[in-house]
Amino acid sequence: xxxxxxxxxxxxxxxxxxxxxxxxxxxxxxxxxxxxxxxxxxxxxxxxxxxxxxxxxxxxxxxxxxxxxxxxxxxxxxxxxxxxxxx
Length: 87
Description:
Keywords: Cell membrane, Membrane, Protein transport, Translocation, Transmembrane, Transmembrane helix, Transport
Structural class: mainly alpha
Mean pLDDT: 85
GO molecular function: protein transmembrane transporter activity
Strand content: under 5%
Pfam families: SecE
Function: Essential subunit of the Sec protein translocation channel SecYEG. Clamps together the 2 halves of SecY. May contact the channel plug during translocation.
Order of helices and strands: HH
């Protein structure tokens, strides 16, 4: 009977060697640096466009929530108040 390791079999993961106490930390830092090199920095035009999209969305949501708040407030005054709609 022959013995084989996970690295010998297709689809198996290779064994990771222990690099001492700081091996995992160094591996983590190397992977972080590798991922940071993949980051795309937006151009000035893209940055302005993204900022405007966010500001328009926030303004829209503020308006929507304000209208809902006003409507529910009027409904609460109608149900629990004196029955007159406040203006």
